[in-house]
Amino acid sequence: MDVLERADLAFPASIREFQSLFPDDAACAAYLEQAQWPNGFACRHCGETGEPFRITTRPGILTCRACRRQHGLLKGTVMERSHTPLTVWFWAAYLVTSHTPGISAVQFQRQLGLTRYETAFAILHKLRAAMVRPDQDTIGGLPGTHVEVDETLIGGRTRGEGRGVHHKTLVACAVEVRQQQKANSAHPRRDGRYAGRIRLAQIPNRSGSSLENFVRSAVTPGAMIVTDDWSGYNGLSDAGFKHSPIAVCNEPEIADEFLPMVHLVFSNLKTWLKGIHHGVSDKHLQAYLNEFTFRFNRRFYPMNAFRSLLGIASTVPSPTYKALYSGNWHHPTSSGCMH
After folding, report:
1. In what order do the strands lie in the sheet with 53-55?
2. Using an 8 Å Cβ cutoff, are 3 and 307 in contact?
3. What is the pTM assigned to this prediction?
4. Using CA atoms, how far apart are residues 11 and 226, in angstroms rounded to an integer?
5. Hey, how many other C-beta atoms are within 10 angstroms of the C-beta on 158?
6. Better-predicted residue by pLDDT, 6 or 25
């Protein structure tokens, strides 16, 4: 559950405030306890309320005074069974959400003084798994809005294989386009339009089946959808959407007029992947798409994203380091059902 509405959960507005709020593991554990029991501790087994027994050396464990059953604050979270101190987890969540461009595993390892790159890599991927809400809703359908949908190829430069497209991954994007009350004179061609929420997912191909599945999972039924005139989108009208195809004809002016937001998202996404992470593998690309989506959708309140991430992290499963590299783990998707 997104906990942005939880006024009782403090969130740090600066590094100094973060250090004051979370100086040690006990303070981090108290935050998690407050998130799980906003009205005070209540045993999940016997229902007993009141102050539980606490173990000084294990702040993440609470023991019911009545039935003596133990409750792990990390159980069911992305931090479960982790031997990493809670302060490191909280620093990771803070750095990921408060740094506008994000942070790479190498930067994270260096700033936290971690001895192993694998630890930094695993922590960040566990947090990325928590960036997709299990009960995530669809976008579009609001009065005065429409949704732009398009797809693009993402991948690094391939050497020694001749010309053409090699080892690139197809990514689909849906962008909710909203209208400002007053048009921004700095971008007159947008007529006051700006991007609301987005959804990003890897898709296997540009077929009608793949594109329709993505749109169904990401966009509210009945919403107005603007696309180019690719034949793969022809079935959207029959699927219950108000479809408006635009013949772009490789003309940048037409694309800027009718599909400006989705192209802006793609441009920012590719710049971010190259600038922060210097490219990512196809196997883990969806995790980075999830991070970009999480960051983009919360860009108007970036500091609150720290609280939001920890709230989401308490309800989702997370990968192990072994699962990440064995191929047994499938990254959750921002659009819900695409794989």
Report:
1. 53-55, 58-63, 70-72
2. yes
3. 0.86
4. 38
5. 12
6. 25
